[in-house]
Amino acid sequence: MKIGFLGLGTMGTGIVTNLLRSGHEVTVWNRTPSKCREFVKEGALKATSPAEVIQDCDITFSCVSDPTALKDLVFGNCGVLQGICQGKAYVDMSTVDVDTITDVHEAVTVRGGRFLEAPIIGSKDSSCNGQLLILAAGDQTLYEDCFSCFEAMGRKSFFLGEVGSASKMQLISGLCSSTVLAGLAESLALAEKVGLDQDQVLQILSMSSVNCQLIKQKGIAMTTSEFSDPNYKLHLCQKDLRLAVNMSDTVDQPLHVGAAVNELFKKAKSKGYGEHDVAAVYRAANL
Ligand code: NA7
């Protein structure tokens, strides 16, 4: 089976490395072509457009930043759609909204291709370590055909049914984790203001019922101001929040806390921390 991969950002880099390590034949494409170089050295093939990758491969995956990037990739010049025909399979792993993924699904299937959405829960570390959680929905036969790839990328994959369900789950997951992060940022900021020792605060939190990996890792990043090597970029997290808030509008579900968390992330982004790690939300909480 020939595998294609479009989008060699933070997530794509870890995923493609694991696909190659597990013996898959992979053809890559990235908007900035220089990012393909390292993978070619590791044995990947390189194509000059998304359409060419689709034409050369049986299953092509993509992972790009946001809905605009995905639309460019799929509907743009020499984009995914121009390679799609009967027998081709396309799997998108970006975090986008239900409308965007539905449009992509319709456009691919109307041309005879098979489509799966498969957004991922994780960060740079989990994509490098093959520990992503994969949320898939759409064509179940394609989900089954992706088995060896998903095994290489992640620790577990879930099939959630019709296209849109995986994007919904992904946005819920992001809403929940960024709410925890915002709560941690404000708690640590307040702790500092009232004169507590932050290391001791973190030690106590990590022995209490709120203990989790996120609190531990991001707590250390916040108290040591280590934001510059992003595990997950703050502007992507804010995009995920924006999409979750928009989704809540479609069903009239109030997001009192979620909307406020979104504002905090927007503030951190406007202070110039968009390309930093999500933990930099602390900079917006700690005035
Ligand atoms: P990164 O590291 O910011 O990488 C983003 C990738 O998306 C990168 O390959 C970009 O290409 C690509 N991109 C961005 N805009 C476009 C357009 N318009 N056309 C084609 N390709 C584009 O993000 P992550 O890897 O951390 O995250 C990827 C997704 O997973 C995202 O949805 C997260 O929310 C979850 P570039 O290298 O800049 O040319």
Question: How would you characterize the overall build of this protein?
Answer:
- This protein is of the alpha/beta class.
- The protein folds into two domains: 2-163, NAD(P)-binding Rossmann-like Domain (Rossmann fold), CATH 3.40.50; 168-285, N-(1-d-carboxylethyl)-l-norvaline Dehydrogenase, domain 2 (Orthogonal Bundle), CATH 1.10.1040.
- The chain has 14 helices and nine strands.
- The model has no long low-confidence stretch (mean pLDDT 97).
- It binds ligand NA7.
- Ligand NA7 binds next to helix 1, helix 4 and helix 12.
CATH classification, class level of the largest domain: Alpha Beta
As a whole number of angstroms, the C-alpha radius of gyration is: 20 Å
Number of helices: 14
Bound molecules: ligand NA7
Largest sheet at a glance? Answer: 9 strands, mixed
> What is the share of helical residues?
40-55%
CATH homologous superfamily designation of the largest domain: NAD(P)-binding Rossmann-like Domain
Number of strands: 9
Family: Belongs to the HIBADH-related family. NP60 subfamily.
GO molecular function: DNA binding; NAD binding; NADP binding; nucleosome binding; oxidoreductase activity
GO biological process, one term: transcription elongation-coupled chromatin remodeling
Keywords: NAD, Oxidoreductase
Gist of the model:
The chain is α/β, with parallel strands linked by helices. The chain is built from 14 helices and 9 strands.
